[in-house]
Specification:
The complex is a heterodimer of chains A (356) and B (295). Chain A has ten helices and seven strands. Chain A is of the alpha+beta class and 356 residues long. Chain A starts with a helix and ends with a helix. With 295 residues, chain B is α/β, with parallel strands linked by helices. Chain B has nine helices and 13 strands. Chain B is elongated. The chains are: A alpha+beta (356), B alpha/beta (295). At the A-B interface, helix 1 and helix 5 of A face helix 2, strand 5, helix 3 and helix 5 of B.
Chain lengths: 356, 295
Amino acid sequence: MTWLAWRQFRTQALIALGVTAVLAVFLALTGPHLLHVFDTTVRHCARHNDCLSVQSNYRRMAHWANALNIIVIVVPALIGVFWGAPLIARELEGGTFRVAWTQSVTRQRWTTTKLAVVGLASVVTAGLFSLMVTWWQSPSDTLGASPYSTFDSRDIVPLAYAAFAFALGVALGCIIRRTIPAMASTLAVFIGVRVAVLQYVRPHYLSPVHLVTNFVAPGPTSGPVSQGSGTGWTISSVLKNAAGKVIGQNGGVGPNGNIDFRGFGNGVVKFVGVGTCPNKFPAQLRSGGGTASQGPPPDVQRAVEKCVNSFHLKNVLTYQPGSRYWTFQWIEFSLYLTLALALIGFSVWWIRKRIT
Amino acid sequence: MTTVLEATHLGKSYRGRWALRDCSITIPSGHVVGIVGPNGAGKSTLLNMAAGLISPSAGTIEVLGATPGVSPTQLAKVGFVAQENPVYPGLSIADHLSLGSHLNPSWDQEFATDRLRALNLNQRQRAGKLSGGQRAQLGLTMALAKRPDLLLLDEPVASLDPLARREFLQQLMDTVAGRDVSVVLSSHLVSDVERVCDYLIVLASSKVQVAGDVDDLLAMHHRLIGPRQNAEAVLANQHVIEASHTDKQSTLIVRSDGPVSDPDWTIESISLEDLVLAYMTRAKTESVEHQGSNS
């Protein structure tokens, strides 16, 4: 049975091997040079105080980086669409399952052998792509603020994405029984699940860390204050009032994070979205004057600080620390692998019990 | 008499619609059996169940003494040529033979190669480029190279033109002659069955209308032509299958258990086609009446 599974998969496997080889050659030719440049310039830039220019120079050399990330993200989807979906659907559509299932091999063995051969190839292919790109990008990844920004195209998760995409394609092919609709729906469902997990599930793998800081009045030249989480993954950054109610996003008031003051004459000033300042201001404020680029006079600035401090606002930064990166990789890997195994089990059951 | 296929109250429903219902049938071994019946009678459903491709919703079916498709051993004993003769379009004829040799322990590669050579089929040709007749031949060769005890053919010639039809059936007969294999084939055309089969089963409305050795059936069935007034008083040993009347005379198709003694009746022999049509007409009338009484 392995012979048949391989014979039917041979052409696709050779195409995949060809594409992988081309990419491998390209990366092998460019990677060592990039690493050399990185080691000789970027790594020691702090000594010469020219990090900004050296880093941007390096990034320009590594302009392939984004394209490579996209390739690693797209490969699992292609595997699901071109290897998973047609695997069973084409046999059902063309009637050839009647040939296969009336040889001296049980249906279960036919199913499990096909799934094993092509499933293994799917995971290995995605693994090779991830391995190559992770290696090639390893110097520039140390420049990025957060490893989470390239989470989907590095290390072990692409393998599980491929396993899931393949299993999803197989399962939809079993149910839909027609190749092209099965391919289209595999792509749609795969993208849907990936986006949904990224948006709604991944942030909650572990309860995030909250960093609470006092909100301070903006300085004379600064705009909205945005607090970063370093190498972590910022889930949200909100402003809370003394009662604990969220009154703003991104280091300011309101959804856009503005910090505005509006004068009403007689030194009465309103902190927009928060309340009326308890202290009187020395001079009339222009509308929105708090963020003027020129900056207010020192006495106005002092009044602004006094006003802001009186409200006891807090910045709450919610984030996943960079140290959790590998934990998150393993959790996401396990999640997709579990989904894949469930879909494989479903397909085996469906072929045995429902295609009758 | 041993049986190759035994079905008891066999039924198959798809989303509440019965493709085959309450079908009891016994097929003896050592024959070339033809199952004829109108489209939708359940012939294909029956053969697919016998091949283990679909499982019954009701009743039981045993093929060569075991549940179809239950084990590699059982699968090895049954050769199956599916309707429309599906093949893997991307694989060559040689690949199909390799498929057979890898998946069947009793595979006879020499037979397969010789047969395809005799048919002038180039082994390197892609199966997707074969004509309907060539696909049917490839399917038959693969099924026979398994060295099965039972060969099932589901409408093997339905998609072939009349010439290819005759050729295929002739070659089927030449190949199975002298081999220890029972054959069951289905068709909606009596002419196909007449050419090759020595045992006939008429399946209509899921029911076996009549089954038996073709020669026996022909010897047993007659057309009686006689005066109209006597139509109701046919002798007790004649079972009327179909009756048609004009003002003056009646024409009856009967199964005779004994000689017709009344000299008023003219007795004619009938063709297999007439016989099958008579049973199919009766089944249709009965099912219409049955549906009428249900509603």
